[in-house]
Amino acid sequence: MKVPTFKPNTKYSYDDYLKWNDDQRWELISGIPYNMAPAPSSRHQEILGNIFGLFFNYLKGKTCKAYLAPFEVRLSENDSDRETFNVVQPDLSIICDRKKIDERGCKGPPDLIVEVLSPGLSAKRDKIYKYDLYENYKVKEYWIVDPYNENIEVYILGVDQFDERQVYARGDQFKVSIFKDLEVNLDDVFGDEPFDLI
């Protein structure tokens, strides 16, 4: 299928996004289109699967639900598709307000978002652009998972912005701020044996 052609200095909306019927996945941040990374690595998927399994088991019988990418999260002050300029596909979204869910995904901020880093530009996008976006739209908790250095950066929303960054590495445990009785063991997230990059 035809890949959309983007004009410089043009702000695109969710209405435009819906017309891009190519085989690629896109995100919009402040109206700027970003092509999603190629198929994630096996390591990425293994770690994401471990995190999803943790939440899936914990959330059984509870109101909150876990959603894996591809899953569109639309962030806007306006209900109009033409006035929505932020559409992201987090690796994992935890959503407790079921009214935010529709057939397209989620309209409004998830309670918790997990992004697992991939090499290249997606790391910059997750650490800068999406960080700012999630903070601005009041995501309560944001994790940036680094599969190569085996750590998780956790940001918890304060009054108007994310509080100081907490970094957890293999061997650490921490409590999920939105679920006080859920504890994460990093050895469970990254697997039984340290990952060898060679």
Automatic annotation (TrEMBL):
It comes from the Bacteria. Signal peptide: none annotated. Keywords: Endonuclease, Hydrolase, Nuclease. Residues 15-185 form the Putative restriction endonuclease domain. It holds the Pfam family Uma2. InterPro entries: Nuclease_put_TT1808 (IPR012296), Restrct_endonuc-II-like (IPR011335), Uma2 (IPR008538). Coiled coil: none annotated. The keyword Nuclease applies. GO terms for molecular function: endonuclease activity. The keyword tRNA-binding does not apply. This is Uma2 family endonuclease. It comes from Paenactinomyces guangxiensis.
